[in-house]
Every structure is written in C-alpha cells, then in structure tokens.
Write a structure and sequence with these properties.
This protein is mainly alpha-helical. The chain is 64% helix and 0% strand. It has one domain: Hypothetical protein af1432. Helix 2 packs antiparallel against helix 3, helix 2 packs across helix 8 and helix 3 packs across helix 8.
Length: 200
C-alpha cells in the first residue's frame, strides 16, 4: 500500500516546544504537551467520577482523547496569553477564526482516510458540547493547579492568576468537579515528603 508522507504527528511532537504562561516568571516552565497530558488525565477522572458517583454514562476514554488534542492548534498559533486573547470581544473573535484555520490546516496534513477520525478531536467547532464541558473544566483545573504549585514554591507572580482561576473553578457547577476539588486539589499544596509520608 502506497502512502504519502504526513507532517501531522511531527507537528504534534513540537507542542513540547510551546511554553505556557509566556509573560509570567515561572519556577518550573510548563509546555503545551505536558499540559495536555494533565488535562487528559483530569478530564478522564471527571468522566469516571460522573459515571461512578452521579449516574453518568459517558466514555471516559473518549473524553481523555479529546483532551489530548484540545490545544493542538497552538503548535501553529502559539499560546497567546489570556490577557491578550480576551482583551476585548473583537480580539477574541478574530483569534477564534485564526484557531479554526490552524485546526483545519492540521487536519489537512493527515492522509485523507484518517482525517475523519481526527477532525472531531482537533476542530473545536465539531466538539460535543457536553464532552467538551468536561475538557474545559479539566483545563481550568490544570491551570489552577499550576498556580497552586507556583505559589507553594514562593512565586507570588501567580497570585492574581490563582484568584481569577479560583473564581472560574468555583463557577463550574458540575458535581464531579466539586468532588475532584475536595478529593485531590489539597495534595498539590504539599511537599513531596508530605504526600509520601503516609504512603510508605
């Protein structure tokens, strides 16, 4: 079987070169690839919690896969800082158009027979709204946890972002998010010794 060369996954591999929080002083640099992994793990957990505790019937593996690709377009657009991206409605709207073009460009890199599998993952206008709501919640949780870790390391640069993200997190009215917060978030405020003492 003859196939043509595709640059799709070569681009995906370069997500590790796109740093998040580019205007902030970081004690630990975070890139888009590792952020996407954490969002996928959290989104998967939110789906499992919904199914186990709140009578849900959602495919946790599909949610995790969607989360893995939620920032795929940033390999072409970069990670535009939120204060710039959301400075006003015009900029937000125009940036959304840029994201859509980048998403389609990535899909077009794939062999034609594979495009139907990846387009619903990469192209945000095709995302199932309920599924993406969990991914978006996981995205906010991941960003919030980054601020917790930075502040715990003594970096006050993240205080304002921390307060803003806490408000966003508290405004997510999903029981699985509340249970995740109660169960897992406090551990991120602790040192390695504190989270391992009870495990050994």
């Amino acid at each position: 079987m003859q196939t043509t060369s595709s640059h799709f996954f070569a681009h995906m591999a370069r997500l590790k070169l796109i740093n998040r929080w580019p205007l902030m002083r970081n004690t630990q640099i975070e890139n888009v690839q590792e952020h996407s992994l954490q969002v996928a793990m959290i989104a998967h957990a939110l789906a499992v919690i919904r199914n186990e505790y709140f009578d849900g019937n959602i495919d946790a593996n599909a949610i995790a896969t969607l989360a893995l690709f939620h920032d795929a377009s940033e390999v072409l657009t970069g990670d535009l800082p939120s204060p710039v991206k959301y400075f006003n409605s015009t900029i937000a709207s125009e940036y959304k158009k840029i994201e859509s073009i980048a998403e389609q460009k990535l899909v077009d890199m794939l062999p034609e027979r594979l495009q139907a599998y990846y387009k619903p993952l990469v192209c945000s206008d095709l995302h199932n709204k309920d599924d993406y709501r969990l991914v978006k919640a996981a995205d906010i949780i991941s960003a919030y946890l980054k601020t917790v870790e930075e502040i715990s390391a003594g970096n006050n640069e993240f205080k304002k972002a921390h307060n803003k993200l806490k408000i966003q997190l508290d405004n997510i009215k999903l029981p699985e998010v509340e249970l995740f917060k109660q169960t897992f978030i406090n551990s991120f405020k602790l040192s390695l010794d504190e989270i391992t003492d009870n495990e050994l």
